[in-house]
UniProtKB/TrEMBL annotation:
Biased composition (Low complexity): 449-479
Record region (Disordered): 429-485
Keywords: Signal
Signal peptide boundaries: 1-17
Origin organism lineage: Bacteria, Pseudomonadati, Pseudomonadota, Betaproteobacteria, Burkholderiales
Protein name: Amidohydrolase family protein
Amino acid sequence: MRFLIACLALTCSFSQAQTSPSPQQPYQASAPLSWELKNARWFDGQKIQRGSLYVENGVFVAKKPAKVNRKMDLRHQQVLINPLAEAHNHNLQTAWGWGQFADKYIDEGVFYAAMLCGDPAGVAEVQPLAASPAAPDVSFVTACITSPDGYPLAAVLPEPSPEAAAAQRQIVLVGSPEQARDQWPAIKARGGAWIRVVLAHSERPELRQQPGMFGRLGLTPETATELTRQAHADGLRVVAHVETAADFAAALAAGADAIAHLPGYANTLNEPAGTFAISEAIAAQAARQRTAVITTTAAAGLFKLEPDAQAALREVQRTNLSRLQAAGVALLVGSDVFVGTARVELHALDDLGLDRATLLRLATQDTPRALFPGRKIGCFEPGCEASFLVLGDDPLTDMDTLDMPLLRVKQGRLLTRLAEVAASSSQASASTADVPVKKAAAKKKGSAKSKASSKAPAKASGKKATQAGKPAKAQTKATGKAKPR
């Protein structure tokens, strides 16, 4: 436990450092370690399990390794969870954003992420940084497609105009199904396993005639359908940005594999709350088509609305979540909060009343596996990648415990801001739970001999004999052999 206590002290110092003007050191990874985690508790996707866990060569194994670098007796007090995943953000898709936010992901226990609108040149600068063992694993979308007057042009252009839109290279502009076919070779050449298509207020074509709406709309449903057809023909998958319930239905009709945004995260046109309500029939269609939905409920906090309007949107979000869950739609945790990570989305979903075991499963199992389907992650069984967080308490009882992980381990490597800790962690070490036990046993054995040789004095001074036994009893508690308190 000395190792865990030391890390707890380091965690406290990190928290204090966050309020200090001096910059923190970046996270570094130790060499891959062999671990023995005795008396552990971990979340298996449904409930808390108990037992011992072993790690060797970056994966969980069934038996204790021959050489153990880190041996910890957790005494059924801490809880292990798999790392969190962020299915929708944009803050790691440029070198500048990476420098600002990559360590924040590790700090908050988010080891997996999807960036949904990068350009190939910018992502090429980031990918070598993402290859570090102390970095989050990131899936990049480098084909972000909207209409010539569509979202997010108003957000990314200093002065949105048709001329400025045509000159930029981050976002692909497609105005019709015919253009989708003509431009498809260039779109495919941008790389990646996914493309992103933007649908925004697709049910209101009259908005295209309003100058103030430039850069805030999206593809026509027919164009989105043609892009999806082209993508699927070449083995690519499609994630669709949506704003309204009508956009959601249009994305399903197009055949999108995933939908980014639960309708109701924003109401920039001050529309009735019912505009964002997903019907039970549409939810059932999403389930039949196995279309995943990225939640992004936390993004609602970025838009300042009157209290009544904000409350109405939150109620729509709650209803939409309930209908999608009842239909069996796969939900993925994503925040779309540029200055945040999936952790802010977890708290937003918790506030909406999502069952905590379900919420934790979505964040630690379903979402990571959706982002990286070829890997064995989000599990503690033998053969699973040994990536986990150690929390101070049970997150099913107290979600706030997610806000301060005590340890971060990625594929068997300890992640730390202290270079000397990362460098020395691979040295073989004995458990603090074992060595004192031997000493205590020796004391007991010596005490037994003493009692045998001087039985009469011990009887004559029973009070002293009892006091002499107290240190051994206290030592047994300190080694974890006594029952947990």
